[in-house]
C-alpha cells in the first residue's frame, strides 16, 4: 500500500485523546453557551408557588416589591436623563395635582451628570412601596456637584402589572 493511502486511512481512525480531545470539548462548550437566548427581554424564571423571590441577603422579596423597584428605577432614570415626558407619564393623577408645573420642570432639570441611589424599600398599605432615594443633581457651569438630596419615592400599583409614582422625591 502506498504511504499516502496509509495516511488517509489512519487520520479518521485516530483516537480522541490528549490535545485532540480539546477541540470537540471546545465546540460543545460553545454550542451550549450560544444556545442560551441573548434577548434581554427573556429572563430566567425565578417563580415559586407563593410568588416570592429569593434575594442575595437571604430575605424573600415578593413580586410586587421587585416590580415597584423597577418602576422607581425607570422614573429616576427619566429624572437623570431630563426626560420630562416619560417621568410625567409615570406619575399618578394625585401626584400631578400636588405638584405645580414649575416644580416638575425644576425637578426634571437635574443636570447632565446627575445620579441617584435607591435604598431598600418597604411595603406600605394598599399595594404601595416606599423607597428611600438620594439624588445627586449636577448643574453644569458650577464648580462642583450640588448637595445630595435625601428623600423618598412612593410607588403604587395601578393595574395588574402596572406601577406609577404617587409621591415625588
Structural features:
36% helix; alpha+beta; two-stranded antiparallel sheet; Nuclear Transport Factor 2, Chain: A; five-stranded antiparallel beta sheet; single chain; 169 residues
Describe this structure in words.
The chain is α+β, with helices and mostly antiparallel strands. It has a domain of 107 residues: Roll (Nuclear Transport Factor 2, Chain: A). 36% of the residues lie in helices and 21% in strands. It is built from 6 helices and 7 strands, in the order ααββααααβββββ. The strands form 2 sheets. Strands 3, 4, 5, 6 and 7 form a 5-stranded antiparallel sheet that branches. A two-stranded antiparallel sheet has the order 1-2. β4 and β5 form a beta hairpin. The termini are far apart. About 7% of the residues have low confidence.
H and E string: HHEEHHHHEEEEE
What overall geometry do the principal axes of the alpha carbons give? globular
Beta-strand proportion: 15-25%
SS class: alpha+beta
The chain-level mean pLDDT equals: 76
Taking Cα atoms only, what radius of gyration do you get, to the nearest Å? 27 Å
Portion of residues within helices: 25-40%
In short:
With 169 residues, the protein is of the alpha+beta class. The protein has helices at residues 3-10, 19-35, 63-80, 84-89, 93-97, 101-107, and strands at 52-54, 60-62, 115-118, 122-124, 128-136, 149-157, 163-167.
Amino acid at each position: 500500500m502506498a504511504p499516502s493511502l496509509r495516511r488517509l486511512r489512519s487520520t479518521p481512525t485516530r483516537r480522541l485523546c490528549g490535545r485532540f480531545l480539546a477541540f470537540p470539548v471546545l465546540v460543545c462548550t460553545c454550542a451550549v453557551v450560544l444556545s442560551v437566548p441573548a434577548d434581554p427581554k427573556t429572563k430566567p424564571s425565578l417563580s415559586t408557588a407563593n410568588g416570592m423571590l429569593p434575594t442575595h441577603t437571604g430575605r424573600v422579596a415578593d413580586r410586587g416589591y421587585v416590580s415597584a423597584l423597577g418602576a422607581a428605577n425607570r422614573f429616576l432614570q427619566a429624572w437623570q436623563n431630563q426626560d420630562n415626558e416619560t417621568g410625567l407619564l409615570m406619575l399618578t393623577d394625585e401626584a400631578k395635582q400636588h405638584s405645580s408645573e414649575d416644580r416638575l420642570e425644576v425637578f426634571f432639570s437635574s443636570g447632565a451628570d446627575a445620579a441617584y441611589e435607591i435604598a431598600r424599600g418597604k411595603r406600605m398599605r394598599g399595594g404601595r412601596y416606599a423607597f428611600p432615594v438620594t439624588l445627586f443633581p449636577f448643574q453644569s457651569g458650577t464648580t462642583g456637584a450640588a448637595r445630595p438630596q435625601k428623600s423618598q419615592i412612593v410607588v403604587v400599583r395601578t393595574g395588574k402589572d402596572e406601577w406609577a409614582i404617587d409621591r415625588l422625591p
